[in-house]
Write a structure and sequence with these properties.
With 461 residues, the protein is α/β, with parallel strands linked by helices. The protein contains 16 helices and 19 strands. The mean pLDDT is 96.
Length: 461
């Protein structure tokens, strides 16, 4: 095992005692581990002193960069007051302020926030609230859920059930409750230009489902604008409005899972606010605290909240909670992040960064012989890799071509994470033009070096 003494010790403990998420640990043990010890801006540094551009924003969460002085100051200020105080029967100022702030930026009557600590929980809460609402209002038969094909909403049992990802969740399907799916639309976009858009079959399928099942359906859940874990699958402009109108027409709650797409990732604070859509439930996490601390919120319409009110003995209350619900440190960072993000959007800085990102993706990778397709909206993109452009075959699964590209990228000072043989480029929103150029150039170089070194069907061991 290579590296300095400290690195070797950490690697030994890691390999002996850790179990990493979404990771085949046999494969992980065959790769030299990277121990991240510090970060600054869009960059992180490992225990050997090597710097890397954080090309996946620490799993899609980082907004303003690592070690941001304003967020650090907000965190330290709150730390000097209280690190944690429960919201079970008590409150605290930053929790109240954040709930009010989320009401300000959310559209329409979305004025109540139920806090938790991750996106899966935010979605579970929305599902449970919808189910209980219909029971409390005299419609206990409304128990069904509709979701869009290819959806990913988390890894708890409720969120797995409403998702549609066989690779991640198929093994647990016998324990799921039944869910109906409608097809996702077709959309291709790069550098702000929609090359292909067709929502007809998707909307037709949804309308047919609602006509048949609306009386027994509690809610519809979807990721608006872009399905991240599906490989940045896009929806055409106006699609969300059509879905919302069908839900209203048929009396079905609309749950929008903006865990990934909110807080600047696609260029605006909230997708639903940008598009003028008022869902019944809005699920937020990831960028909510700019990648600093775990915090999530399920933002709920006033009229839904009011259905849960009554004397204690009516047991209408929502019996759900988490130990660290509304943690003050996380809430303080979130408030500071939202303020900074509003400035970034209003100044045009974010829009300029997105424009550079899209332009360089198009210039350097669109038409590349190993790139089948690029999907990009905001500061998020998927680059689908292929052995040969236009060919029907794909890389053998065991070859792990996408992973090999990402490992090659590490050698060039870039951290990426693949989804099979699709590269997901999701940098911190604070990246400047030079850093975006570095990201795209090193990605291109890593693809080319990996294809030259390719050994067909070689298993990764």
């Amino acid at each position: 095992m290579t590296g300095n003494k400290a690195t070797r010790a950490w690697n030994e403990r890691d390999l002996r005692h850790s179990w990493h998420p979404f990771t085949q640990m046999r494969e992980y043990a065959a790769i030299p581990p990277v121990q991240i010890v510090s970060g600054q801006g869009a960059w992180v540094t490992d225990s050997e002193g090597r710097r890397y551009l954080d090309g996946n924003a620490s799993i899609w969460t980082n907004v303003h960069g690592h070690n941001d002085p304003d967020l650090n100051a907000a965190l330290r200020d709150q730390l000097d007051r209280v690190a944690h105080s429960t919201l079970l029967g008590l409150s605290h100022p930053v929790g109240a302020d954040l709930a009010a702030r989320l009401a300000e930026i959310s559209p329409g009557r979305l004025n109540r926030s139920f806090f938790s600590d991750n996106g899966s929980n935010a979605v579970e809460i929305a599902l449970k609230l919808s189910f209980q609402y219909w029971e409390l209002t005299g419609h206990p038969e409304k128990r069904g859920v509709i979701s869009m094909a290819n959806g990913y909403h988390g890894d708890t049992f409720g969120t797995m059930a409403v998702g549609d990802n066989g690779v991640f969740h198929g093994r647990f399907r016998p324990w799921f409750f039944p869910v109906s799916h409608f097809p996702a639309p077709v959309c291709a976009e790069l550098n702000g230009r929609v090359a292909e858009a067709d929502a007809r079959e998707s909307l037709k399928g949804l309308e047919k489902l609602l006509q048949k099942e609306a009386e027994r359906t509690a809610c519809l859940i979807m990721e608006p604008s872009m399905q991240g874990a599906a490989g940045m699958r896009l929806q055409p402009p106006g699609f969300l409005r059509e879905v919302a109108a069908l839900c209203r027409q048929h009396g079905v709650h609309l749950i929008l899972d903006e865990v990934f797409v909110a807080f600047g990732r696609l260029g605006s604070l909230l997708v639903c606010a940008e598009e003028g859509i008022e869902p019944d439930f809005l699920c937020l996490a990831k960028g909510l605290t700019a990648g600093y601390l775990p915090l999530a919120a399920t933002v709920v319409r006033d009229d839904i909240y009011e259905a849960f009110l009554g004397p204690f003995e009516s047991f209408r209350a929502f019996f759900h909670g988490h130990t660290f619900t509304g943690n003050p440190l996380a809430a303080a960072v979130s408030l500071a992040s939202i303020q900074k993000l509003e400035t970034m959007i209003a100044s045009g800085d974010l829009a300029r960064g997105v424009s550079v990102f899209g332009r360089l993706l198009e210039e350097r990778l669109d038409g590349h012989p190993q790139v089948a397709e690029i999907r990009q909206r905001g500061m998020a993109a998927a680059v689908e890799l292929t052995p040969e452009r236009g060919a029907a075959e794909s890389f053998p699964t065991g070859e792990r071509f996408g992973l090999r590209v990402c490992l090659r990228a590490r050698e060039h000072g870039l951290i990426l994470r693949p989804l099979g043989d699709t590269l997901l480029l999701v940098p911190p929103l604070c990246v400047n033009e030079d850093e975006i150029t570095f990201l795209i150039e090193k990605t291109t170089l890593s693809i080319e070096e990996t294809i030259r070194a390719r050994q067909p069907a070689a298993a990764f061991t």
